[in-house]
Each structure stands twice: as structure tokens, then as C-alpha cells.
């Protein structure tokens, strides 16, 4: 059976650390999960290696646009405990973006968002890595025709869809459990993006030293050539992803390629980001936005009311969370509220023969504080003629306030107003 060149040439792990065989297997598993994404864009990686730098926050490094990618597999405070596979894959997707983009700017985050979306789609459709299909059964054997690979991929995707239907589970991960704080879930997701971005050593002064350290301590394993059956399965899943993208974007769909790695997400215009920081995370999907909190009105304040606006909420440019208009910063990522655009107010057209209402017809409709309006009401009440405070019931002698016309004791009506 014909073979093709591997997308990742070599794996490198630290042979002198505990559980070294598991580290090598983890590197291979991470590579198998992202290979369809790499094959669709024509990306290749020379060496995929683990590293355990003394800097506790570092998670990944891309050296020379894919010549070497380093991933932290173990927790910084315990080299025997491995980081969850999904977090390592997320770091791998981040470092793959550095093959195309250097700085952590808007195009970089757009591409990272697209890679994350495609990875989640692969998991949802049952892809578990090269050479495996849904149940983890090794394919092997004779060459699989492309139509048979597509049939098996569709069958696995349909089986996965039926198993997860109604479970509330989000593609490839755990869904929001009942009673869980959705705002905390959004904040944790935004924090995860920030952590991975800040833990990237690509393009820093420390990157060369890290590469030299891995060359000294690493044990290299040459990757096996990819089987044609593996390529057929990958292409079948890529076809399924492209079909879903076409349905999602419609006429705006743009296929991913080496020239346009971000696909449709790169073609759709994005709102501008604040230029104060280059480590901002990509936007969170709109479907995960929580309902905004109702604004709190202080009736005791003597400050003048803010000018009226057509909007009672504002959207964060960083995590797209909808915040109430009274919030000066985002409730999820603490980003400062952007300056709202100014738009002139157009008065409604007046009917023929009618005089348009003036601004001072009713003093209570003017924009004044609640305390000023209360003073106006009290002044108007004081100007009215004062009468008796109450009256005595002629039947039972019960005293009643003037506003009551009937006695609360016997029900008799008062004799005079």
C-alpha cells in the first residue's frame, strides 16, 4: 500500500522524567487530533516536543514557523501529573497559528478561533485521531476507497449525534450543568484564552534558550509515514466540516486553504478591538451570552440624570458579553466600556393642523433628578387650599381622614364633603 509523507516528522520527549512512555504517546495523540486541520492548510511541523521550563506560566512555543513546536505536558509543580489532553490540544492549536502569524493580533485570534471551531466539529462528528474511527478500532488492512471512507465518517458522525442528542453536551466537551453559573463559565473560557496567550513563548527572548534546552534533554523518535487509509479518513471528515461551514455561512462561505487559513471567519469583517493590549482573547460565541442584569436606579441621588439613549445595554468588544448600561466595565473580562457613538435625535413629524408639543409643557417630563421632581409635587400640593384633616362618623363616632367617604367601623357615609 502506498504511503505519504508525515505532517509531523519527529517527536521528542524527555526520557529522564517519570512516565516518559506516556509523554511520547500524548505527543502522538495530540498530533493525530490536529492533523486534519494541518492537512487542509498544507502545514507541516519538523519536531513536536515536550518541554518543562522553569517559568511556571509557559505552555507552548513555536520556533521558526513550525520547525519545532514545544508543548508543556506536565503540571509545573508536579512532573508526574499530566495536564488534560484537551488543554494541551488547545495550546497546540495556538502554536500552529504562529506558522502564519507572528504577533497576537486580530488576524491571529481570528485564525485561532477557526482552528478551535474545526477541532470541536471533528470531535462532535466522532473523529478520535488518525487510524481510528469513533470506537477506537484500528482500520488497517487493504486500502479504503474514498467513497467508503466518506460513508464510514458519516456513519460515525450520525452515531455521535444520536448519542449526544438531548444531553446538553457541547461538541467534544462537557456542557453547562444544571445550576452552574453561566457567567462563571464564560469568564473561565475567557481566562483560559488569556492564560494560553500569556503562556506562549513564541517570539520572545527566552525562545532560543528553550529550544537549546530541549535539544540537550530530548529523546527523538522518527514519525511513521502516514497510511493512505488515514489520509482518506481525514479527507472524509474535512468534507463533513466543509458541508457544515457552507450551511452556517451560506453565500459568505470561504473554504480554508494555505492562502486563506482562517476561511470564512477571516473573510467576515470584525468589530475593531482596543489597541491598548495585544493579548486580548478572541470573541466568545453569541449563543453563550447570559441575560443582562436590570439596571439599579438610585432615587435619592441629587446628581442630574444621564442623557437618554436608545440602548439600555452595551456589548464588550473583547468577549462580546452584553452588559447593562450602568456597567462601566465588562462583568466577565473587566474590559473598560467603549465610548458610545453619538447620534442626533430626530423629532417625530407633527400632524397637519396640530402644534408640536413644546419641551416645557409638563415640568415633570423634563430630564431632572427624582429629588427635583418630588420638590415640584410637594410645592404643587402646598399651593392647594387646605381643608379639615378628618371627620367624625355621625353613627358610631369613629374618626376618619378626609380622603375616606365611608366609615371603616360601621360603613356609614359622611354627611358632607
Automatic annotation (TrEMBL):
GO terms for cellular component: nucleus. Residues 269-295, 338-350 have a biased composition (Pro residues). InterPro entries: WLM_dom, WSS1-like_metalloprotease, Znf_RanBP2. The keyword Metal-binding applies. Residues 310-339 form the RanBP2-type domain. GO terms for biological process: DNA repair. Residues 1-195 form the WLM domain. Residues 355-368 have a biased composition (Low complexity). PANTHER family: DNA-DEPENDENT METALLOPROTEASE WSS1 (PTHR46622:SF1). This is WLM domain-containing protein.
Amino acid at each position: 500500500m502506498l504511503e505519504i509523507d508525515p505532517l509531523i516528522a519527529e517527536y521528542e520527549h524527555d526520557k529522564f522524567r517519570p512516565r516518559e512512555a506516556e509523554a511520547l504517546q500524548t505527543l502522538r495523540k495530540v498530533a493525530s487530533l490536529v492533523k486534519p486541520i494541518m492537512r487542509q492548510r498544507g502545514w507541516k511541523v519538523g519536531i513536536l516536543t515536550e518541554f518543562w521550563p522553569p517559568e511556571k506560566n509557559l505552555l507552548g512555543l513555536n520556533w521558526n514557523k513550525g520547525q519545532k513546536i514545544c508543548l508543556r505536558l506536565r503540571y509545573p509543580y508536579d512532573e508526574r501529573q499530566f495536564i488534560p489532553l484537551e488543554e494541551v490540544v488547545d495550546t497546540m492549536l495556538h502554536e500552529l497559528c504562529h506558522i502564519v502569524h507572528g504577533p497576537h493580533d486580530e488576524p491571529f485570534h481570528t485564525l485561532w478561533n477557526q482552528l478551535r471551531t474545526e477541532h470541536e466539529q471533528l470531535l462532535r462528528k466522532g473523529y478520535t485521531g488518525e487510524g481510528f474511527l469513533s470506537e477506537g478500532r484500528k482500520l488497517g488492512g487493504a486500502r479504503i476507497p474514498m467513497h467508503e471512507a466518506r460513508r464510514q465518517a458519516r456513519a460515525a458522525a450520525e452515531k455521535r449525534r444520536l448519542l449526544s442528542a438531548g444531553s446538553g453536551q457541547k461538541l467534544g466537551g462537557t456542557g453547562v450543568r444544571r445550576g452552574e453559573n453561566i457567567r462563571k463559565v464564560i469568564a473561565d473560557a475567557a481566562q483560559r484564552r488569556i492564560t494560553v496567550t500569556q503562556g506562549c513563548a513564541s517570539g520572545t527572548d527566552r525562545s532560543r534558550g528553550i529550544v537549546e534546552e530541549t535539544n540537550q534533554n530530548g529523546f527523538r523518535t522518527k514519525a511513521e509515514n502516514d497510511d493512505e487509509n488515514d489520509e482518506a479518513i481525514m479527507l472524509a471528515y474535512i468534507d463533513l466540516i466543509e458541508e457544515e461551514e457552507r450551511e452556517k455561512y451560506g453565500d459568505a462561505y470561504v473554504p480554508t486553504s494555505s492562502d486563506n487559513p482562517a476561511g470564512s471567519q477571516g473573510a467576515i469583517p470584525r468589530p475593531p478591538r482596543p489597541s491598548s493590549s495585544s493579548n486580548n482573547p478572541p470573541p466568545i460565541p453569541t449563543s453563550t451570552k447570559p441575560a443582562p442584569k436590570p439596571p439599579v436606579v438610585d432615587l435619592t441621588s441629587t446628581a442630574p440624570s444621564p442623557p437618554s439613549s436608545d440602548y439600555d445595554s452595551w456589548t464588550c468588544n473583547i468577549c462580546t458579553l452584553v452588559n447593562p448600561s450602568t456597567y462601566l466595565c465588562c462583568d466577565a473580562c473587566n474590559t473598560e466600556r467603549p465610548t458610545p457613538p453619538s447620534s442626533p435625535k430626530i423629532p417625530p413629524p407633527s400632524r397637519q393642523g396640530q402644534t408640536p408639543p413644546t419641551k416645557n409643557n409638563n415640568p415633570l417630563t423634563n430630564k431632572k433628578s427624582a429629588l427635583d421632581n418630588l420638590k415640584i409635587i410637594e410645592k404643587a400640593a402646598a399651593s392647594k387650599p387646605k381643608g379639615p384633616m378628618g371627620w367624625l362618623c355621625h353613627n358610631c363616632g369613629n374618626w376618619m381622614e378626609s380622603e375616606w367617604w365611608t366609615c371603616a367601623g360601621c360603613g356609614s357615609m359622611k354627611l358632607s364633603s
